[in-house]
Backbone:
């Protein structure tokens, strides 16, 4: 049984003001009478004087017959709200202090709403997510529009209408948090986006949107939303985001799922013998792209080198499409190697951070029946990779860096190859900063035509994704020469010893001038005057 069944009269304020008798909505008369009812309802059983009622309905421009009009409306309301009275009304009561509308709290939709929200919060705190979801859905389902409807903009209703609307925003934020916790991320993003539209300066809503986007695999979009809120806050109020939201922003940058409150999904290492399994649900809505990739795969199976660029907005399904393509390639007899941000598989099916050529040569040694074959005497890494690729059709990966100049010109840097001591399975801090045997080769050992093609494609990716400042683009290289875009890293390391500055130093751009270029570009993009910038 719900509130409508439990009480003879039920009063709705979560939207246009309504009164129901059982399941029947009552006729409350003309607008002035409905406003009078709303004025009495928001007092929650407190009397309102005749003078206040007149001022609430007409302000300073009261008609001559204002008092008589109020009394007439009161009489009509009594007939509707208390039709069975035999003498004095027990619902709309007149007294020395004015008129009082006596409505039990349990007969109001606001009370029902608050009760469901409280139960949802309690269930959420106990991690009873299905129950919390059901309660909050019921609470939000009571709303029929902005609180108090047509009366919401009346001066007497501004404060009282704002309170339930704020409670509705709170409830929406609770729903978003529950959805994130349940992993129901598409509706979580949608709910959070609606919350930020409804309250563009409400920080909690923006933090939920950032968390939902990150959990949905869209960290770049999460960072963009932070920048959007920060810009809005500075423009409207001259303020910066709170330390809490700045910490959340940093957590996204660092992929700190614990700080984001998002459980880290367990991951199984990808091996040459077993690529990531394709989701059991069919890939829908991508028939054109799938058909094109299948055509290219057929041509590659016939011995022709082919390449494709897979691009789109964050969260548009690029990874899902590539997973499907990789599975098809594996079934066709291709050896599929995959790396993420410079990561790849090494011997023993562990993860290594070596350069692309070294990673791929190392990974391919373990594939096929002759996986245990040794390298030829004195054979360099590139020769080893070419020999391994020749055994079976292969999909490979390489990274390229892109820098934006103040005049808007985009420049792609040369590929960087890193070789570490054989005894180091990881390119860790020691290998990077201490080990004297770690070597950096710029440019990497790639064919000139392939290197130039990668640079052109990296610039295309920068423009397609509307990036700014600097990026590093990772590519798949099929047969060592044909590239497919894999991912984009917008936050590469930037100490003087990091790879990104090393790449540009090799291209003739010192660390100081690289910093100057990025700072000048940022100032130029924001329209601020450039003054006193000089490279050291």
Residues:
């Amino acid at each position: 049984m719900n509130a409508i069944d439990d009480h003879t009269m039920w009063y709705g304020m979560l939207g246009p003001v309504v009164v129901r008798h059982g399941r029947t909505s009552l006729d409350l008369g003309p607008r002035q009478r409905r406003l009078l009812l709303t004025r009495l309802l928001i007092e929650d059983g407190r009397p309102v004087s005749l003078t206040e009622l007149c001022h609430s309905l007409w302000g300073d421009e009261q008609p001559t017959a204002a008092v008589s009009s109020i009394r007439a409306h009161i009489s009509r309301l009594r007939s509707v709200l208390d039709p069975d009275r035999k003498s004095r009304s027990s619902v709309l009561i007149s007294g020395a202090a004015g008129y009082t509308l006596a409505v039990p709290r349990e007969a109001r939709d606001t009370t029902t709403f608050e009760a469901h929200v409280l139960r949802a919060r309690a269930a959420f705190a106990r991690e009873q997510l299905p129950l919390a979801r059901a309660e909050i859905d019921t609470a939000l389902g009571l709303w029929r529009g902005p609180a108090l409807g047509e009366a919401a903009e009346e001066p007497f209703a501004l404060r009282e209408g704002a309170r339930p609307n704020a409670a509705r925003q709170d409830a929406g934020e609770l729903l978003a948090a529950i959805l994130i916790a349940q992993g129901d991320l598409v509706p979580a993003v949608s709910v959070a986006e609606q919350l930020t539209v409804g309250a563009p300066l409400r920080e909690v809503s923006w933090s939920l949107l950032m968390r939902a986007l990150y959990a949905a695999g869209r960290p770049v979009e999460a960072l963009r939303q932070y920048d959007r809120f920060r810009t809005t806050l500075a423009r409207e109020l001259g303020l910066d985001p709170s330390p809490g939201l700045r910490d959340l922003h940093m957590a996204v940058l660092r992929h700190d799922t614990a700080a984001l409150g998002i459980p880290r999904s367990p991951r199984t290492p990808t091996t040459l013998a077993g690529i990531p399994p394709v989701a059991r649900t069919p890939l829908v809505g991508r028939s054109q792209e799938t058909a094109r990739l299948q055509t290219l795969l057929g041509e590659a199976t016939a011995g022709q080198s082919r390449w494709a660029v897979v691009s789109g907005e964050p969260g548009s399904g690029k990874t899902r499409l590539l997973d499907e393509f990789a599975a098809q390639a594996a079934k066709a007899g291709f050896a599929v190697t995959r790396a993420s941000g410079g990561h790849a598989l090494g011997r023993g099916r562990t993860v290594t951070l070596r350069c692309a050529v070294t990673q791929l040569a190392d990974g391919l040694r373990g594939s096929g029946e002759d996986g245990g074959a040794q390298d030829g005497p004195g054979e360099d890494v590139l020769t080893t990779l070419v020999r391994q690729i020749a055994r079976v059709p292969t999909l490979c990966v390489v990274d390229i860096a892109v820098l934006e100049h103040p005049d808007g010109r985009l420049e792609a840097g040369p590929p960087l190859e890193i070789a570490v001591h054989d005894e180091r399975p990881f390119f860790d801090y020691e290998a990077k900063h201490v080990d004297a045997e770690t070597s950096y080769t710029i440019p990497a050992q790639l064919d000139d035509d392939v290197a130039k093609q990668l640079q052109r494609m990296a610039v295309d990716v920068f423009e397609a994704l509307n990036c700014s400042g600097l990026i590093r683009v990772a590519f798949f290289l099929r047969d060592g020469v044909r590239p497919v875009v894999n991912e984009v890293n917008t936050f590469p390391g930037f100490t003087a010893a990091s790879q990104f500055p090393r790449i540009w130093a090799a291209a003739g751009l010192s660390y100081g001038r690289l910093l100057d270029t990025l700072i000048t570009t940022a100032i130029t993009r924001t329209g601020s005057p450039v003054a006193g910038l000089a490279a050291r």
Summary: The first strand starts at residue 9 and ends at 12. The chain has three domains: 3-107, 109-260, 287-415+446-492. The domain at 3-107 is CATH 1.10.10.10 (Arc Repressor Mutant, subunit A). Residues 264-281, 339-359, 366-379, 530-536 have pLDDT under 50 and may be disordered.
